[in-house]
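Working notes for the structural subgroup meeting. M.R. asked for a predicted model of this chain before we commit to crystallization trials. I am recording the input and output together here so anyone reviewing the notebook later can reproduce the run.

Input as submitted:
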Amino acid sequence: MDCLFCKIANGEIPCSKIYEDDMVLAFKDIDPKAPFHILIIPKTHIKSAAEINGENCGIIAHIFEIAAKIARKKAKEEHPELEDADIGLFFISPCPG
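Returned structure, recorded in token form:
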């Protein structure tokens, strides 16, 4: 498979890992557009949001769960006074290729 994200998830292309489990990999973006810009990708290839189905929707839900977990941790490290409701997230859909 000639998918950039699959190559990163498989370790063929190095990344600055933030988090990893059996379903997802989170890493720093190589061209960040924000002070804390990370990507969270599924380890299972999902070409686009059009391919989300009953078999893989748990992976997508897990991505959102991990995104919130990472955001809360980072926000609390930098701004301990923030409440969870004050923490913002920005999401982009799966695989570019």
